[in-house]
Write a structure and sequence with these properties.
By secondary structure, the chain is an alpha/beta fold. The chain has 4 helices and 8 strands; from the N terminus they run αβββαβββααββ.
Length: 176
C-alpha cells in the first residue's frame, strides 16, 4: 500500500501517468494564492459490545478517534490506515466511507475535511504511540463530556451511516 492512497499501487501509478504531464501555471502566482485546506482520516472502530474506540492523546485535553491529518500527497483513507498502525500497532484495511465532515478554522487549526471510515470490530486495542496516554472504549453518551461536540455529532452520523448503509455529508458535525 502506497503512502499516497489506499488502493492498488499499480493502478494508481497508471492513473497518474494517464493524467499526463503536471499542469503548468498559465498565470504566475495564481496557484500560490489558493487557500490551503487540510484533511484528516479517522476510523469508527467498535468493540464486540458496540462501544466506540477512542484514543487518549497526550497533546490535547479531549479524546479522539484513531486516525489523523493527511501528509502531502496522501489520501484520507491512507492517512487513517497509517495513523492506526502508528497509534495502535494494527495493520487493517478500512471499510467504506461513513462520513465526510467539514470543520471550520479553530484557533491554530485550519478548516478541514474530516473523513470517517468503518474500522470494524476490534476488541482489546492498546496504545503503541508515545503521543497517546492510552485508549478507551465508550458509548457515545459516555464519551460526550470528553470529546468536542462536533466530534460527537460526527460519530453519531457515522453510526447512523453504518446502520443505514448510506454515507453522510456534514458541516461541523451537522448533516446537510
Amino acid at each position: 500500500m502506497s503512502a499516497l492512497h489506499s488502493g492498488d499501487p499499480a493502478s494508481f501509478a497508471a492513473d497518474v501517468l494517464a493524467e499526463g504531464p503536471p499542469e503548468l501555471e498559465h498565470v504566475p502566482g495564481v496557484a500560490s494564492r489558493r487557500p490551503t485546506k487540510t484533511s484528516a482520516g479517522g476510523a469508527l472502530i467498535r468493540d464486540s459490545t458496540g462501544r466506540v474506540l477512542f484514543v487518549v492523546p497526550t497533546y490535547k485535553a479531549v479524546l479522539d478517534v484513531p486516525g489523523g491529518m493527511t501528509e502531502d500527497d496522501e489520501s484520507p483513507k491512507a492517512a487513517a490506515v497509517r495513523e492506526i498502525r502508528e497509534e495502535l500497532g494494527l495493520t487493517m484495511s478500512l471499510g467504506r466511507l461513513l462520513v465526510v465532515d467539514w470543520t471550520p478554522r479553530n484557533g491554530v487549526w485550519r478548516d478541514c475535511h474530516q473523513f470517517v471510515f468503518d474500522g470494524g470490530v476490534v476488541d482489546d486495542a492498546v496504545a503503541c504511540d508515545p503521543e497517546l496516554e492510552g485508549v478507551v472504549y465508550l458509548t457515545l453518551d459516555e464519551a460526550e463530556p470528553r470529546i468536542y461536540p462536533s466530534l460527537h455529532r460526527r460519530l453519531a452520523l457515522a453510526v447512523a451511516a453504518l446502520e443505514s448503509g448510506s454515507t453522510r455529508y456534514a458541516e461541523f458535525g451537522r448533516e446537510v
